[in-house]
Inverse folding.
């Protein structure tokens, strides 16, 4: 649980790129392992899908084979493709 000081620091933290409150801009993407749930926030790259907020792929601890599926998600947790468009399932 964060201390009162940590809460104050988090509340005043701003993105170094655009000045928006941390977590409220699209300058950063979360990399997350679907197996162990380790996560890390990294700077968005030009080749990342537009609208992408989370990239899921196995981390170095969980991926013992060099092949891994990569999934992309928007800020609402919906899966998207490499063009940033929603992936819809056939019904």
């Amino acid at each position: 649980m964060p201390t009162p000081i940590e809460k104050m620091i988090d509340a005043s933290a701003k993105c170094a790129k655009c000045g928006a409150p941390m977590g409220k801009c699209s300058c950063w993407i979360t990399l997350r392992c679907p197996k162990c749930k380790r996560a890390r926030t990294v700077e968005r790259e030009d080749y990342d899908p537009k609208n992408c907020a989370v990239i899921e792929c196995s981390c170095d601890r969980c991926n013992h084979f060099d092949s891994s599926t990569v999934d992309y998600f928007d800020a609402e947790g919906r899966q998207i493709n490499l063009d940033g468009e929603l992936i819809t399932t056939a019904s």
User: Anything to note?
Assistant: The mean pLDDT is 85. The first helix runs from residue 4 to 12. The chain has one domain: 25-91. Residues 25-91 form one domain.
